[in-house]
Amino acid sequence: MAQYFELHPDNPQGRLLKQAAGLLARGGVAAVPTDSSYALVCHLDDKAAADKLRRIRGVDEKHHLSLLCRDLSELASYARVDNRQFRLIKSATPGPYTFILEASKEVPRRLSHPARKTIGLRLPAHRTLQALLDVHGAPLLATTLLLPGDDEALNDAQAIRDRLEHELAAVLEAGACPLEPTTVIDLTPMGTGGDPVVLRQGRGELAPLGLA
Fold first, then answer.
1. Cα–Cα distance for residue pair 127/12, rounded to 1 Å
2. Which CATH topology does 3-209 take?
3. What is the pTM of this model?
4. Where in the chain are the domains?
5. Residue 147 to residues 156, 164, 171, Cα–Cα distance (Å)
6. Average pLDDT of the chain?
7. 202: closest CA among 55, 80, 97, 51?
């Protein structure tokens, strides 16, 4: 049965965040609000939890999962980032963007794309999620909470609990959450002198990145 955490949107309670982080550390999958929509998250180094996250989402190993990072230095530890890529990421974060980059050796090979060896990375601008990442002390593996057969991501905490109460360890509720996915940008072509490629236009605006 999923534990339901009601968190203050501006000052999330540390005691509840520690409880939620504890469930993730013990292999649980949680539904958390982000600056785009709800996401499923789990511990980065837990294979069983990652497999369960993929199963709930209905995707295979070719689907790009993302790492939710606390800051740019943490992102740079899990991806190979040159100066040009770094400047573009810095101009857009924190915010509702997912960047596809070449995974570093810190990312378990089973989590990166099997052919391209890439991974999605995010620096979310959501206070509760940022606080959870701080308590957790490391990136979380994540994917949009879009269930098989659905056209839109789930975005209501109680509805998420009702549908997934036997699959999730926790559901975090912290007020209204946007209902629009991230903008996904593939930055790997920049590593060989090319231009970034917009794979999905979502909530993140392209103009601030010079890509409109």
1. 8
2. DHBP synthase (3.90.870)
3. 0.93
4. 3-209
5. 13, 10, 15
6. 92
7. 97
